[in-house]
Amino acid sequence: MSAAMQNYIDEAEKALLHTYNRYQVVLERGEGVYLYDMDGKKYLDFVSGIAVFALGYHHQEYNDALKEQIDKLIHTSNYYYNLPAIEAAKKLQKISGMDRVFFTNSGAEAVEGAIKTARKYAWLKDGCTDHEIIAMDHSFHGRTMGALSVTGNPHYREAFEPGIGNIRFARLNDFESVEAQVTDKTCGILFETVQGEGGIYPATEEFMRKVRKLCDERDILMILDEIQCGMGRTGTMYAWQRYGMKPDVMTTAKALGCGVPVGAFLMTEKVGAHSLAAGDHGTTYGGNPLACAAICKVIDLFERQKVLDNVGTVGDYLGGRLEEMVQEFDCVQERRGLGMMQGLVFDRAVGDVIVKAMDKGLILINAGTNIIRFVPPLVITKEHVDDMMVILRESIGEVYG
Ligand SMILES: *Cc1c(COP(=O)(O)O)cnc(C)c1O
Description:
By secondary structure, the chain is an alpha/beta fold. The protein has 14 helices and 17 strands. The structure holds pyridoxal-5'-phosphate.
């Protein structure tokens, strides 16, 4: 590492609040599926800023759309209409099949909105203020107090208790554990269609179907967090679309703006008509013209570049190649995931493998201590997967061989 880069890192550590143990690199620019640090070293990127930069870096048409919108109008507040927000909402309706959209600035805020929607929906029915939400162990929904309260990782919550209260936890893919938590006060059942941070666990079809049926029978809102697994990552625009059913409320963010901070929560017409109304919820920035211009261009480019087709073919290929690692290394126990959201489960910590790969010019990330997560730009090719595999194999071999 150059002295200049080390100097920047030292300065960063004096100025930024130390809430992350960062990798020792200062990234400067990106080109396609590659990132470059300030010393000019090139990295193949299999993280895409945590499932965000789906279309790759320095996408000229995307960048131009943002520049054009900057020169027109960046922000108005939500007291007025703006064209990009109307277009973005219509496009989101189309790709999701949901009816009503509320734009946020982040994933966590989308989860907050979904929680408020469920509480208001139930409150309108009985006027009570003791409704409960069922969330899942090992889930991750964000770091704000509401989103944290439904995050099934006690370690993240501990120092910040009490949370928002009336949250019960069950286990993903264990329907009986969900049933056991249902009471007359349950207003929502919330989970990620594919758990991300918790270790890349896809919901099973049976679990989805049974939760849907339970929610229908008891008028409970089924809320799916698609912040990480949505926007094409698993091969359908939203991961739940492969299951032949539909949630009542869903969240989306991460790749939605491909780097411009934006999220949304969406709901059916029925829920929209019986939950949040004028004055119930708001945001200064959410859905501003710049963020929504990004959404519009992202959705256009997904269609035009046939991103879902690529996730289908190259995602399958990625899964197959990762499977080789399970055969090859005793310390690799399992591969899990869908499409371009894959996890390689080790019997030990993966931190050293990730650092070694970075040395060799490959950017990877963990999910928990013992899982390497693969969430590359959705435009990678089989050749990129092959290049990744060479470095991954070497790195595992050198660290644990
Ligand atoms: C990243 C993530 C969030 C939080 O999104 P932020 O934009 O970081 O607030 C919520 N849910 C899931 C499933 C996520 O992966």
